[in-house]
Amino acid sequence: MKKLLSVLLAIAMLVMCLAFTACGDNSGKPDNGVNGGIGNNEQGDDEKDPPKLSDPEQIVVDNRFANGFNVKGQQDGIGTVFGKLTYDDDTVTPSWSLGQWYCGYYNSAVEKPKDNDEYNPAYNILNATKTFNANLGLYTWSDASKVLRVNPAEGTLYARLEGTKEYNAPRVDGGPWPHLLMEYGCQSGYRLDDLYSLTLNFDYTLKMFKGDMGSGLNTDIHCAQFPFYCVIQNRNRESAGYGQYVWFGACMFDNRQDFTMTFAQADVGSEDKLATNSFIYQVGQRAYLSAPVKVDEKIEIKWDMLPYMRAAYQTARERGFLGDTEWEDLYATSGNFGWEITGTYDAAIQIDKFEIMAVKELKE
Question: How far is CA 240 from CA 236, 267, 319, in A?
Fold first, then answer.
């Protein structure tokens, strides 16, 4: 009798196990309520409703370069607009700015020029030769060391900076270096704490890189790099830290290494090179690149920057920056990308897409 009871008990337990397995197995798919499982309105304690999200919004102002560029001077730190690069309508107001800091510095008549008028004018893109290729829709400006080529109809941009034309000797530690930076603005009202994601879509191709510094090479101070930055800033006027910001960035190319590492420190200058003294947080390339950058190989980045921006904020606080700023005070406001060449290198890049897409988490 005991043996019979044991057998019956085992059979009953097996049936219960099979029934439980059948109810719980839906091949990993959400239950639609037809099979009598847990429906969408009767979730367990460990499950949450997915957040309600806005449609993606492209927040870069004129991300197709349709309105041209305001042009700043060659002396760093001067925010004055000296002219503009436009296409067919000279009355248009550009949304972008172009920074050409220290271009012509080493080829100027004045040693260590301190005023914009003291720089070599041949290295000022406002004095560049302008051409238009009607078949390709390309506008091109070329000066002594730079080429900027834009197709505003397609939203593409080509930028070249030649260090071999800028330097007459290897740059020394603390010395300035030429820049070719495109500066953009963001639509207002994008507070980081309100966002579900903030995605950078950046399609580009390294079109050219060359140069050999020989025995004069010091990789600590000589390179060609193309960084991207998005400024995250305290825009809460009620905050004691109103105006504080971090340079949040990524590196699209650095000739010194296959993959850059995360870089975090203050933007410190020297007697010859101005700086903002704000915090820089540049994320290592493995977060957004799957392979090293090579000439003529197109790269398509689609990268949610938001979690890394929170890490940038936390690191800045730990390093003594943003002391009066809370995460809830920060907005995506503006930024730049472009060439910074600190050695005798020539480099060019083609950009086919630039977007920053914001998705908001809708509150009840």
Answer: 9, 22, 18
Confidence of residue 48 (pLDDT cuts 50, 70, 90): confident
Write down the mean pLDDT value for the chain: 87
- List CB contacts of 349: < 8 A, sequence separation 6 or more: 158, 159, 160, 204, 205, 206, 207, 226, 252, 253, 339
Q: Which of 88, 42, 41 is nearest to 67 (CA)?
A: 88
Residue length of the chain: 364
Task: Please measure the distance between the N-terminal and C-terminal CA atoms of the chain and give it in whole angstroms.
Answer: 63
Distance between CA atoms of residues 181 and 159, nearest Å: 9
- What type of residue is 279? F
Q: What is the pLDDT of residues 117-136, one digit of tens each?
A: 999 999 999 999 999 999 99
Burial string for 216-241 (b: 16+ CB within 10 Å, else e) reads: ebeeeebbbbbbbbbbbbbbbeebeb
SS3 315: helix
- Beta strand pairing call for 279-283 and 245-254: parallel
DSSP letters, 73-125, are -SSTT---EEEEE-SS-TT---SEEEE-TTTTGGGSSSSS--SGGGS-GGG-G
Residue among 129, 132, 133, 104 nearest 118 (CA): 104
**pLDDT tens, position by position, 175-203:** 999 999 999 999 999 999 999 999 999 99
Q: Is 31 helix (H, G, I), strand (E, B) or coil?
A: coil
Task: Report how far residue 248's alpha carbon sits from residue 305's, in angstroms, rounded to the nearest whole number.
Answer: 9
Number of H helices, E strands in the chain: 3, 17
Residue 79: pLDDT band (50, 70, 90) is confident
Identity of residue 243 = G
Whether 32 has a pLDDT exceeding 60, the answer reads no
Mean pLDDT of 80-97: 96
DSSP state letter for 244: -
Structure tokens at 357: 């897409």
